[in-house]
Design brief:
Blueprint: E1 4-10, E2 16-21, H1 24-33, E3 48-55, H2 58-69, H3 73-81, H4 84-91
Antiparallel strand pairs: 1-2, 1-3
Helix pairs in contact: 3-4
């Protein structure tokens, strides 16, 4: 059975790239050597692998990759640092109408 990995690269412009692969080492080399000129990471090298999570189920890996791609940079940074309290806080709804907002109008 193959393993799948969701990974995050930190780019030289301080942005993050989130991807999925079945071979992290090979994929990192492809990004780092600029194998694909049209890739997001091509003009943002050098790169650093800052996060990697393993999955056995490819559909679960794909769902997780899409979820993380939709996160803010702050949430991705909290994930990378393993700051799950901050990650949880950043995930909380902060809308004016939220039941979690103590200043909301009733």
């Amino acid at each position: 059975m193959k393993n799948f990995y969701v990974y995050i690269l930190e780019c030289s412009d301080d942005s993050y790239y989130v991807g999925i692969t079945n071979d992290v080492g090979r994929r990192f080399i492809e990004h780092s050597t600029g194998l694909h000129e049209t890739a997001y990471t091509f003009k943002r090298r050098p790169l650093k692998l800052v996060y990697c999570r393993q999955f056995r189920d490819p559909l679960e890996a794909i769902r997780y990759e899409k979820q993380v791609k939709g996160w803010t940079k702050a949430k991705k940074t909290a994930l990378i640092k393993g700051d799950f309290d901050l990650l949880h806080e950043l995930a909380s709804c902060k809308n004016e109408t939220s039941h979690k907002n103590p200043n909301r109008s009733r």
